[in-house]
Amino acid sequence: MAQVASAATNLLFVVVIAIGYIMMIRLYRQMVAVYDHMLGFMESESISLGRPLVVVYEDPEKLPNLNLVVQNVGSGPARSISFEFSAPIESSDGFVLSELPVFAEGRTSLAPGAKLTCYWDDLGDLLSRIEEGKIARHVEVTTHYEDLTGAPTRPPGTSSPTSMRASATSTTRASMSSWRLWRGSPKA
Predict the structure, then answer these.
(1) Global pTM?
(2) Any residues with CB less than 8 A from the CB of 130 and at least 6 apart, and which?
(3) Fewer CB under 10 Å: which end of the chain, C or N?
(4) Is residue 85 over pLDDT 80?
(5) pLDDT band at 133 (very low <50, low <70, confident <90, very high)
């Protein structure tokens, strides 16, 4: 009888150890899955924090003078930058800003936070040429560039000598109505 009890006790210990071992393997697999998920999340966060975002916009900071600005508002450097325009960006004297070398030839790189600014025109002169129909009211500017990994990106944007409203897709829309308070009452 003692031998049977000893064998049963030994069997019980083996079963308990086997169950503990199986549970430990399952727990280890769950921990590996959690660590893999955390590493993937951390990698995606580090990549997204280091991505460039190159935008083209008009800067009304020194009104009545307007500047055309190319800026990398992202946190990573941009390279191989080029631009496409839906229509030429002109000043009131007929000078075509979209044909400047920075736009026609592009840029090799642009650091995070870097800004290229060029004088565009006087707002009053520009609005009068727009109202006459001699200059396009809205111009779509598409920037093409790569991040450091060589991944191409292509956020669209518009540029117009009027106010902008930015959206989450890096598209800016312009409308004449916001300038009415500043400039009198131009026709929309």
Answers:
(1) 0.59
(2) 136, 137, 161, 176
(3) N
(4) yes
(5) confident
